[in-house]
Design brief:
Rossmann fold; three-stranded parallel β-sheet; 6 helices; about 5% strand; binds iron/sulfur cluster
């Protein structure tokens, strides 16, 4: 007599539910067989371990910081390791407006990142100049670097950055290539604030 299982009296489902029969995984020591392609494994591993460059330009960067904090937790997708050196980063999140003076610096940081690399344009300012339709702000960073994912909004919420990040992961897993490099195609070269020879 008596209850052998101390948890038996605890009802874990409502009176109208029938308990689900969960399939049990039997550990019998045998190896499972998994077949795939090397390219798929590489794409999957790259998409699951993106390291963003530590790079924020304006107010959007505050939302980017929130995305890494505990409430939204970008670490769930393997991208919490923001790198202070572009040589250790494979993702550039352009968070905020980019001034014409900053454009050569942004391009230089992009050039210093090793291949393969990706770019997210975060916010209206980075994507198209936003409310700053003037001579001092680059009207879309896709004039400087090839942008893989654009995120609208002013500012985009951390949820939106997470969604954009997931879209980038999907692109990588599906093997979708980067867009063409705007500077390479145009033949222009950004050489510095005093010698900027392109009309942005
Ligand atoms: S999009 Fe809005 S929040 Fe982001 S940098 Fe521009 S003004 Fe700031």
């Amino acid at each position: 007599m008596g209850i052998t299982n101390p948890w038996e009296p605890v009802q874990t489902y409502s009176n109208t539910q029938t308990p689900r029969e969960l399939p049990m995984h039997q550990k019998d020591g045998s190896f499972g067989v998994l077949t795939t392609q090397v390219s798929k494994i590489l794409d999957w591993s790259r998409s699951s371990s993106l390291w963003p460059a530590l790079f924020g330009l304006a107010c959007c960067a505050i939302e980017m910081m929130s995305t890494s904090a505990s409430r939204f937790d970008l670490a769930r997708f393997g991208a919490e390791v923001y790198r202070a050196s572009p040589r250790q980063a494979d993702l550039m999140i352009v968070a905020g407006r980019c001034s014409v003076k900053m454009a050569p610096v942004l391009r230089q940081i992009y050039d210093q990142m090793p291949e393969p690399k990706w770019v997210i344009s975060m916010g209206a300012c980075a994507s198209c100049g936003g409310v700053f339709n003037n001579y001092a702000i680059v009207q879309g960073v896709d004039k400087i670097v090839p942008v893989d994912v654009f995120i609208p909004g002013c500012p985009p919420t951390p949820d939106m950055l997470l969604f954009g990040f997931n879209e980038l992961q999907r692109k990588i897993r599906e093997g979708i290539p980067n867009p063409p490099d705007p500077l390479k195609d145009s033949g222009l070269k950004l050489v510095g604030p005093s010698n900027t020879n392109m009309d942005l």
